[in-house]
Design goal:
Elements lengths: L1 H8 L3 H7 L4 H13 L19 E2 L4 E2 L8 H8 L3 H21 L7 H13 L10 E4 L2 E4 L2 H4 L3 H7 L3 H18 L6
Antiparallel strand pairs: 1-2, 3-4
């Protein structure tokens, strides 16, 4: 049912791939819980992973601004669904999300709490510096700025979307939360 509803809201091919995965409601619930816990939901959102790697300028470790373009398809997939319509679909399917949330270990099972926590976690991400520098480590990159090193993994990932994509994603989330009357603060 969720796949059919998503298809009526957007024809975005990346969104179609995302909702085409098995156990979409459980996967979405897991994604939200992981974001709320500060973890990057790599496995649940694997279909959104950009096909190109992050571009870093030589030994300086400066992230090339062109690298942020690699997240535009995922950002556009989200923005292709009006926040008001997404909220209405969520309201209609909320019992399924509550059940999936209970199965993930929350006995109260009110998924609104998980959504609120996830949006607050993303919203608490500080503004990134104009020049983003990463240090190469064995198998991963780390922010050179000590204030960014202490961020939660999902907040570090949000910064790597780039300032414009990040602002668009956060704007959409605020609209979504407002329609649902979730108290995310500000």
């Amino acid at each position: 049912m969720l796949r059919e509803l998503a298809a009526t809201l957007s024809r975005n091919p990346l969104l179609a791939r995302l909702v085409g995965i098995r156990s979409i409601v459980k996967n979405a619930a897991l994604t939200i819980v992981q974001i709320g816990d500060g973890r990057t939901p790599s496995a649940p959102l694997a279909v959104l992973r950009p096909p190109v790697r992050l571009e870093i300028a030589g030994a300086s470790g400066r992230v090339e601004p062109a690298s942020f373009v690699r997240w535009e398809a995922a950002t556009q997939a989200l923005l292709s669904v009006p926040a008001r319509d997404a909220a209405q679909v969520y309201v209609n399917l909320k019992p399924l999300f509550d059940e999936a949330y209970r199965e993930l270990g929350d006995p109260g099972g009110d998924f609104d709490a998980a959504l609120t926590k996830a949006i607050r976690t993303l919203d608490a991400t500080p503004t990134s510096p104009t020049e983003l520098v990463l240090l190469r480590r064995e198998g991963y990159f780390e922010h050179a700025d000590p204030s960014l090193q202490s961020l939660l993994p999902v907040q570090k990932q949000l910064i790597l979307l780039g300032p414009e994509n990040r602002a668009r994603v956060q704007g959409w989330l605020h609209q979504f939360a407002a329609v649902l009357d979730l108290k995310i603060g500000r």
